[in-house]
Amino acid sequence: MAYLGNPTGTIEVLQKYNFNFQKKFGQNFLIDPHVLDKIISAAEITKEDCVLEIGPGIGTMTQYLAENAREVIAVEIDKNLIPILEDTLSSYDNVTVINEDILKVDIAKIVEERNEGKPIKVVANLPYYITTPIIMGLFESHVPLCSITIMVQKEVADRMKVGPGTKDYGALSLAVQYYAKPEIVANVPPNCFIPRPNVGSAVIRLTRYEQPPVKVDNEHKMFSIIRASFNQRRKTLVNGLVNGGVAKKEDVLRALSEMELSPSVRGEAFTLEQFAHFSNIL
Ligand code: SAM
């Protein structure tokens, strides 16, 4: 089987199987070998690695991963892609395809069984409709992992990187930056995919911190505060947290005064350090 990461190879496979794209599964297949090379090199895959691929599609990136990693576990929701993957990956004995919804798979169990519980690397050209739940699920469930190297919508990649004072700053930025160091690897235009998506894309690498950059007594509490502040980002922090049922007004005011901040401050102006400090005081 020839490499798929180019227009000719991909179209050949799609025609052979008379494959119909399913929009609801966010299917945009990569057809640019330079982008594939960039993803593999940014993910720093070695023959020691166990890699989890989310949404292998027809197996384009899976082939690259299989060549470079010790073992690849690929989770694909679309049952129509399974016979195609059996064909395109037939020459690799280090790939396991699981026909499941990634949001329902017990990833920690896979890591335990396939990598003795040691950290894995996640690599994916993600289905954009579930980018946030996939990333948050990986981080919040504390699955052992070194890094997540993924293609996402450009705007979402920007959101993961920015700090306070920009319109893109929000709960996703803070969650990602609490768990990992984000680095944008490449911007990828729509003509690198079949079919072309309506949005620009970017590859981002999230390198998991061994220790988060701030000390938080109760992570769950800090993230409830963050979510409530950004649910009503035009309101003051006090109103956001009181309306969201996360804290009492007097407690918020006391914490703000202890931090020498104005009672009219908005959550969107807070850095991760400030959210951590505020949550610890509360
Ligand atoms: N990796 C392929 C590539 O780069 O050409 C395909 C990427 S495509 C953007 C996203 C893939 O994720 C599709 O194959 C789609 O069927 C699959 N997918 C969508 N939702 C999924 C889910 N909940 N669980 C697992 N796979 C999913």
Short description:
By secondary structure, the protein is of the alpha/beta class. The protein folds into 2 domains: 7-208, Rossmann fold (3-Layer(aba) Sandwich), CATH 3.40.50.150; 219-281, Helicase, Ruva Protein, domain 3 (Orthogonal Bundle). 40% of the residues lie in helices and 18% in strands.
Which descriptors would you attach to this protein?
seven-stranded mixed β-sheet; 2 domains; 40% helix; two-stranded antiparallel sheet; binds S-adenosylmethionine; Rossmann fold; Helicase, Ruva Protein, domain 3; 282 residues; alpha/beta; 12 helices
Describe the overall structure:
With 282 residues, the chain is of the alpha/beta class. It has two domains: 7-208, Rossmann fold (3-Layer(aba) Sandwich); 219-281, Helicase, Ruva Protein, domain 3. The chain is built from twelve helices and nine strands. It is elongated, with a radius of gyration of 21 Å. S-adenosylmethionine binds next to strand 1 and helix 3. S-adenosylmethionine is lined by residues 25-30, 54-57, 60-61, 75-78, 81, 101-103, 125, 127, 130.
Query: What's the level 1 CATH class of the largest domain?
Result: Alpha Beta
* Count of separate DSSP helical elements: 12
CATH superfamily of the largest domain: Vaccinia Virus protein VP39
β-strand number: 9
CATH architecture of the largest domain: 3-Layer(aba) Sandwich
What is the molecular shape?
elongated
In this entry the ligands are:
S-adenosylmethionine
Rg? 21 Å
For the record, the count of structural domains works out to: 2
| Helix content bin | 25-40%
Order of helices and strands: HEHEHEHEHEHEHHEEEHHHH
Q: Could you name the ranges where pLDDT drops below 50 across 5 or more consecutive residues?
A: none
Summarize the main sheet: 7 strands, mixed
Strand order of the largest sheet: 4-3-2-5-6-9-7
How far apart are the first and last residues' alpha carbons, in Å?
59 Å
Q: What does the average pLDDT come to?
A: 95
Secondary structure class reads: alpha/beta
User: Do you know the CATH topology of the largest domain?
Assistant: Rossmann fold
Residue fraction in strands:
15-25%
